[in-house]
C-alpha cells in the first residue's frame, strides 16, 4: 500500500454514514431551581404551526448553516422562551438521538430569572414538570412497524428475490409519559427518558 493511502486510513476521523440525509437539530433541556426541587420547562407548540401543532416539546429546532448544535439550542431557546443568552447556563451535551431521518443534540441547561415567558408565534403555553417525575416514573412504551415501499423505478430485477424480496421492517419504540393532563410522547419523551437515566 502507498504511504498516502496508509496516511488517509490512519488519520481518518470517522463520521456517520448517511448523516447528510438526516435533519440535524438541537434542543435545550431547560432546568429551573425551585423550592420544590429541580423542574424541567416544557412547551406546548402553537396550534398555528404546520408540524406537530399542540404537541409537547423542548425548545429547539434546526441547526442553521455555520452554527454548532449548542449555538442552535441556545438560539432556539432564546427565540421560543424570550430569553437572553446570559440567562442560560449550559452544562453540556446529553445523549444524542439518532433516527433514519433525524440527528438531535440535547443540551442540559439551567435558566436564571425566567418568568415563564414565551413567543406566541411558536408556543401556546409553557409549564414545568419535576425532574423527579421522570426519574421515578416508568414510561409506557409501544413498538410500531414501518414497512418499506420501494419507488416504482427501483431495480428489483437486480436483487435476489426481486419483487418477493423480504425487506426487513423498520421498528421503532414510541415512549409516552402522562403528567397530569399533559401527554409527553415521541422524541421529547425519549430525550427525557435518557436524561432521567443520566440524572437518576
From TrEMBL:
<protein>
    <submittedName>
        <fullName>CoA pyrophosphatase</fullName>
    </submittedName>
</protein>
<keyword id="KW-0479">Metal-binding</keyword>
<keyword id="KW-0464">Manganese</keyword>
<dbReference type="InterPro" id="IPR000086">
    <property type="entry name" value="NUDIX_hydrolase_dom"/>
</dbReference>
<dbReference type="Pfam" id="PF00293">
    <property type="entry name" value="NUDIX"/>
</dbReference>
<feature type="domain" description="Nudix hydrolase">
    <location>
        <begin position="22"/>
        <end position="150"/>
    </location>
</feature>
<dbReference type="InterPro" id="IPR045121">
    <property type="entry name" value="CoAse"/>
</dbReference>
<keyword id="KW-0378">Hydrolase</keyword>
<keyword id="KW-0460">Magnesium</keyword>
Amino acid at each position: 500500500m502507498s504511504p498516502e493511502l496508509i496516511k488517509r486510513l490512519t488519520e481518518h476521523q470517522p463520521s456517520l454514514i448517511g448523516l447528510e440525509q438526516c435533519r440535524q437539530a438541537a434542543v435545550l433541556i431547560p432546568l429551573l431551581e425551585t423550592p420544590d426541587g429541580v423542574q424541567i420547562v416544557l412547551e406546548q407548540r402553537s396550534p398555528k404551526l404546520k408540524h406537530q401543532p399542540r404537541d409537547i416539546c423542548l425548545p429547539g429546532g434546526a441547526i442553521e448553516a455555520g452554527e454548532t448544535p449548542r449555538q442552535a439550542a441556545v438560539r432556539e431557546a432564546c427565540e421560543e422562551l424570550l430569553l437572553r443568552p446570559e440567562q442560560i447556563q449550559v452544562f453540556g451535551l446529553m445523549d444524542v438521538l439518532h433516527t433514519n431521518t433525524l440527528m438531535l443534540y440535547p443540551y442540559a441547561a439551567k435558566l436564571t430569572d425566567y418568568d415563564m415567558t414565551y413567543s406566541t408565534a411558536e408556543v401556546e403555553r409553557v409549564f414545568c414538570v419535576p425532574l423527579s417525575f421522570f426519574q421515578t416514573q416508568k414510561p409506557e412504551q409501544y413498538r410500531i412497524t414501518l414497512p418499506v415501499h420501494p419507488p416504482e423505478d427501483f431495480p428489483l430485477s437486480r436483487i435476489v428475490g426481486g419483487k418477493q424480496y423480504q425487506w426487513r421492517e423498520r421498528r421503532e419504540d414510541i415512549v409516552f409519559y402522562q403528567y397530569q393532563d399533559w401527554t409527553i410522547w415521541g422524541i421529547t419523551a425519549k430525550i427525557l427518558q435518557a436524561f432521567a437515566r443520566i440524572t437518576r
